[in-house]
Design goal:
- The chain has 15 helices and 22 strands.
- By secondary structure, it is an alpha/beta fold.
- Strands 7-8-6-9-10-11-12-13-14 form a 9-stranded mixed β-sheet, sandwiched between helices. Strands 15-16-21-17-19-20 form a 6-stranded mixed β-sheet, with helices on both faces. The protein has a 5-stranded parallel β-sheet with strand order 3-2-1-4-5.
- Helix 5 packs across helix 10, helix 5 packs across helix 11 and helix 10 packs antiparallel against helix 11.
- The two termini are about 40 Å apart.
């Protein structure tokens, strides 16, 4: 755990006792603060009491006595309207912080030559894969690496800093909104597309939150920016002295990194042949590899070690994850694709797929994927979005399966009947909450359904 100094002997309000909140309370207490905890749910309050924390209704508290409010990223800071704790904090002149900001302050408290290095990754899509891939490449090269943040372990639950360590941190737009001093040594923006607009008051607020990852960097720090979208291009133009751009369009850039299916180029020269990288299919994974390669070499990893790490990457669960094979049919778990832009990457990676999609639809549905419909051998539609998706896919073979188990069984049978090598792809384009707790639970249900058919796990094939 990382202890957070700066609040010794002072009361700090902590609202939201999920993973980040309870971890922040522990870190604050370890640094000498007096955390005062509250959650709207009884379970969170019970856990806090069980750990010996002071649990106090913040609605009735004396806010003049608080040094800060540590807000869960799940609670709105500004939109659709500020959380009631934010209103109370602002009325009392109390700063509102998040766990990433506490992490930044904990590192800044150390002498400069004793601080670890920090790599931070954000973006609408691809940030989890990029985070995991960078962590893998750096660890494979022999560095001391801690991976966490919005992926896996909460940032303050990671090991105490040592000068040789590298923290590889995924950060969401919600977390970035709660930062004021966070200054990663390497900051990465994978891409931007419309998402979470209700929480940021529209696209401008969402883009501004993402851009905060670069706000406090110095001239010697590294900025790697995906420029396949206009928002990334504008952000890169605002960082002329230190931005290295990464694109998937060779004609767009004469410099920087260009990612193509199976290859990464730098300034027009091939730097990584990914043709044998089993877990990095498609153009979007080549772009993830470019971010990882660019990070590794800037942190002192040799070219050969960086490429070796890319080629040995085992992949990330629920993101283009090969979970099994049944005869000549492969099953790909892309449950993390909760919007159309994410699903586009998967659909574009295969010439033909038996596609399972649906759940709680996002704004726009699957209309923007129309250019990829010819790649769909047949679609199997589940959840709340099934009927709407069926209407959009009127001229594409499809069936309303309703449940994931039914979709897997039907897709497997149709793929086997088609003969030859075939792909059954779960890439839902939707949130999971109509039928599953989260995208992880949906992905595990897909895996279980595939294995129940007698498929051999991909790692054993």
């Amino acid at each position: 755990m990382i202890s957070v100094p700066g609040f010794e002997g002072r009361r700090v309000a902590v609202f939201g006792l999920g993973r980040s909140g309870i971890t922040a309370a522990r870190a604050l207490q370890a640094g000498g603060a007096i955390p005062i905890l509250w959650d709207d749910g009884e379970a969170g309050r019970a856990q806090a009491k069980g750990e010996g924390f002071t649990v106090e209704d913040l609605a009735a508290a004396d806010w003049s006595d608080f040094a800060a409010l540590v807000l869960s990223p799940g609670a709105p800071l500004t939109h659709p309207r500020p959380h009631w704790t934010v209103d109370l904090a602002r009325a009392a002149g109390v700063p509102v912080l998040g766990d990433i900001e506490l992490f930044a302050r904990a590192l800044a408290d150390r002498p400069k030559d004793q601080r670890p290095r920090v790599v931070a990754i954000t973006g609408t899509n691809g940030k989890s894969t990029t985070t995991a891939l960078i962590g893998w490449v750096l660890k494979s090269a022999g560095l001391t690496v801690h991976v966490g943040g919005n992926i896996g372990v909460g940032v303050l639950a990671l090991p105490e800093p040592t000068p040789d360590a590298v923290y590889v941190i995924e950060v969401s737009s919600y977390q970035l909104d709660l930062t004021t001093t966070f200054a990663p040594d390497v900051a990465i923006l994978t891409n931007i597309s419309p998402d979470h607009l209700d929480r940021h008051g529209g696209m401008d607020g969402y883009v501004a939150a993402k851009a905060r990852i670069f706000a406090n960097q110095g001239r010697d720090d590294v900025a790697l920016v995906g420029v396949d979208d206009t928002w990334g291009q504008e952000i890169a133009r605002d960082l002329p002295d230190r931005a290295t751009v990464i694109s998937t369009h060779p004609s767009q850039r004469a410099e920087g990194y260009v990612a193509q299916p199976g290859a990464v180029l730098k300034d027009g020269e091939l730097v990584a042949d990914l043709s044998t990288a089993r877990s990095l299919p498609g153009r979007h994974n080549a772009q993830n590899a470019a971010f990882a390669y660019g990070t590794a070499v800037r942190l002192g990893v040799s070219h050969d070690a960086a490429v070796a790490g890319l080629l040995s990457f085992p992949g990330l669960a629920h993101r283009m994850e090969a979970v099994g094979r049944l005869g000549s049919v492969r099953f790909i778990n892309d449950s993390k694709a909760t919007n159309a832009d994410a699903a586009r990457q998967a659909l574009a990676s295969y010439p033909s797929v038996f596609w399972i999609a649906g759940g709680v639809p996002k704004t726009g549905g699957i209309d923007d994927l129309a250019d990829l419909f010819p790649r769909i051998a047949k679609a199997y539609l589940i959840g709340d979005a099934a009927d709407a998706f069926a209407a959009t896919l009127a001229d594409t073979p499809h069936v309303i399966a309703r449940t994931l188990d039914a979709a897997v069984a039907a897709a497997a049978a149709d793929a086997a009947s088609a003969g030859g090598d075939q792909i059954v792809l779960l890439s839902p384009t939707c949130a999971s909450f109509d039928q599953f707790k989260d995208f992880e639970a949906r992905g595990e249900a897909f895996r279980a359904a595939v294995l129940a058919l007698g498929a051999v796990p991909e790692t054993a094939s």
